[in-house]
Amino acid sequence: MGKLTGQVALVAGGTRGGGRGIAVELGAAGATVYVTGRSSGSGRSDLDRPETIEETAARVDAAGGTGIAVRVDHSNPDEVRTLVERITEEQDGRLDVLVNSVWGGDPLTDWSHPLWEQDLGRGLRLLRQAVETHIVTSRFALPLMVARRRGLVVEVTDGNTARYRGSFFYDLAKSAVIRLAVAQAAELRPHGVAAVAITPGFLRSEAVLEHFGVTEDNWQDGVAKDAHFAHSETPAYLGRAVASLASDPDVMDKTGRALATWGLYGEYGFTDADGTQPDWAAHWADTLADENGPLGDPL
Description:
By secondary structure, the chain is α/β, with parallel strands linked by helices. 42% of the residues lie in helices and 12% in strands.
């Protein structure tokens, strides 16, 4: 029996990437996982990518859990309210893990221009997609955890420090997600519910593999294009970090913190899908710190 057998999780933004990795690994630990997003077998989102929530749910099943795919636009409060009402009815009001992993901001990110030269509409849309969706989801899902006085909220971000992330709206979104964890932790602490932010290192998502022209089977061929790719990690690594947190009876000790895969594998002992333990912070210290400054300090 998995450590999370009998528990219920909601992974908002579980279609692909880190969200998919988290959903599958929660399933591998025995959880029932509601996998939500806009990309479904019934129609793609505006990202127009092939991954679907149904595929993720099937992978949750194959891993040993129970996957339930529900098409939801998390920017629409009515759809999120309906989702939570469904979970309440089907699971007798139980929700143990909420993962806010909605992103979809890659095509909206401008890496080439400063704020005053960017398209304001695109930038504000990125913030609504990457931050407002998390707020809407927590607003409706948190009462289930508060009522039972237990649970874990996970805010998925990129980076866990005050470093500037290279583009104004991208940086603001990823920093704001960390603050969402801090704020939720402060309000949830009296109710026995933990909230954390977590970041992967160099994540080999479907889009990243596509960018390098490789698959997960031959991903190391991409190192010829970027030597840092050798230190990348799969979405399963992030998923195993979250599953470890969800099964930790002392997770309240970490509430309000911004965590990382590289800071958790030593404590919990999980590995990546190939048995390795990538450590992006160590690689940064060895290779990138001279050029970019320490990973843990703001520039």
